[in-house]
Design brief:
Strand content: 15-25%
CATH superfamily of the largest domain: Mur-like, catalytic domain
CATH architecture of the largest domain: 3-Layer(aba) Sandwich
Shape: globular
CATH class of the largest domain: Alpha Beta
Mean pLDDT: 94
Largest sheet: 6 strands, parallel
Helix content: 25-40%
Number of domains: 3
Number of strands: 19
Distance between the termini: 37 Å
Strand order of the largest sheet: 6-7-5-8-9-10
Radius of gyration: 24 Å
Length: 457
């Protein structure tokens, strides 16, 4: 983590006003949360629409903060601790992170996309760890506050930072790219997430392409080549280095030639490699994410053997197609971290394709932020579930009822159940599940369907 003197911090954050007697005093890390202050940290109070971190500065100091950044327009700065003044604490946080990144000379890979960016981040980090000291985004620290904090938490010995870049509106990815200045940038795909804010898949593609705004002059752009919207936008831009594509079709630079999956993961062969690869994560679609990681590995000079070993040793972020088994003998796929139409279809297809189970249940909840077409998207999910391969459809939430409506076009009514009471759904599932049944649990994060997983396990 950042461990510079306050004099250096003031210069790196474009601050002013620090009492000279504190210039050589060192801080140990940065925090914006007064509840999570560790000894000798720099506290940076952030202002939002409904909160003002400056009001919690005294609490941060009482817990061991060594110094604070302070927005000069805010009254009553602390009197008993070193203070660095800035015009805007959020901008100062972002500038400090950018300066720290440049100071330690770390290489950066930025990753965005409608689906799969967290899995791809984990895959890229696992691959590159075979040759480098790697630091990656933790949890959902992928926005205008989380990404700078991720950079500032890097050990000074880090070689490569693998940064997830999230967004909900235009301009946000561009900001993150300008902060991180990635040496390589990956777009996993274009889906329907954030349709409410961006209006169309074209708008989403435009927003995701912002990742190239901060790409280093000779940086490598890697993208899902089966997406026409991305191809069109790549052709409208100029690159010093030829972009690299991955995907399902043979028109890509990286594409699978053989794929075989079971409940342990996926084994596949791919062009242009000779050997086969294994990823310990479910879903044929994750082969494409693995190929994005392989392309990043090749760009950073890894051998095929290193890439193979890195993919096989993947450690996934929780609640991404995470398979668990209960004491009662049933298996549960926890994919409750997030959901969109694209990822929902992929998860259901995974369940349909897995063999060796007595019966299969899908427990699907609301997909959020889909805009005016949200009911149609939910109904289409239900319509595409194969009644010959899935036994029962359970839905949760108001929009989940639209999934049930779609499923009724092919399923008999006694194999579909809709709930708005989570506890009632859990109890009904417990009453019907038997040994060697398989259950998929998936919805947007706001639905908190991991509670269903916990209850069933």
């Amino acid at each position: 983590m950042i461990q510079n003197t306050l004099g250096e911090i003031q210069e790196m954050a474009f601050g002013r006003g620090l009492d000279k007697k504190f210039s050589d005093m060192a801080i140990n890390g940065v925090t914006t949360d007064s509840r999570n202050v560790e000894g000798d940290a720099l506290f940076i109070p952030i202002k939002g629409d409904k909160f003002n971190g400056h009001h919690f500065a005294e609490k941060a100091i009482s817990l061991g903060a060594a110094a604070v950044l302070w927005e000069e327009s805010e009254p009553n700065p602390p009197q008993n601790i070193p203070v660095i003044y800035v015009d805007d604490t959020l901008i100062a946080l972002q500038q400090l992170a950018k300066s720290y990144k440049e100071k330690i000379g770390v290489k950066v890979i930025g990753i965005t996309g409608s689906n799969g960016k967290t899995t791809t981040k984990d895959l890229v980090a696992s691959v590159l760890s075979e040759a480098y000291s790697v630091h990656k985004t933790k949890g959902n620290f992928n926005n205008h506050i989380g990404l700078p904090l991720t950079l500032l938490s890097m050990p000074q010995t880090t070689d490569v930072a693998v940064l997830e870049m999230g967004m909900s509106a235009r301009g946000e990815i561009e900001l993150l790219s300008e902060i991180a200045n990635p040496d390589a940038a990956i777009i996993t795909n274009i889906g329907e997430s954030h349709m409410a804010e961006l209006g169309s898949r074209e708008g989403i593609a435009d927003a995701k392409m912002e990742i190239i705004k901060g790409l280093s002059p000779n940086g490598q752009f890697i993208y899902f080549g089966d997406e026409l919207l991305l191809k069109e936008r790549v052709n409208q831009n100029s690159f010093s280095r030829k972009p690299v594509t991955f995907g399902k079709s043979q028109n890509n630079d990286y594409y699978p030639t053989e794929v075989e999956q079971n409940d342990k993961g996926v084994t596949f062969k791919a062009h242009p490699f000779e050997d086969s690869f294994f990823i310990p994560v479910l879903g044929e679609h994750n082969v494409w994410n693995a190929l994005a990681a392989a392309a990043a590995g090749k760009y950073f000079g890894l051998t095929e053997e290193q890439i193979k070993k890195g993919l096989a040793s993947l450690e996934m972020t929780a609640m991404r197609l995470e398979l668990s088994k209960s004491e009662n003998g049933w298996s549960i796929i926890n994919d409750a971290y997030n959901a969109s139409p694209t990822s929902m279809h992929a998860a259901v297809k995974l369940v349909e394709d897995l063999e060796g189970y007595r019966r299969k249940f899908v427990v699907l909840g609301d997909m959020l932020e889909l805009g005016s077409m949200e009911k149609q998207f939910h109904q289409e999910v239900g319509e595409k579930i194969n009644p010959d391969k899935v036994g029962f459809v359970y839905t949760y939430g108001a929009l989940g009822e639209e999934i049930a409506k779609g499923a009724k076009t092919a399923f008999p009514s006694d194999r579909i159940k809709s709930f708005t009471d989570k506890e009632a759904m859990i109890q009904d599932l417990k009453n019907h599940l038997e040994k060697n049944d398989l259950i998929l649990v998936k919805a947007s994060r706001g639905m908190k369907l991991e509670e269903v997983v916990t209850a069933l396990i």
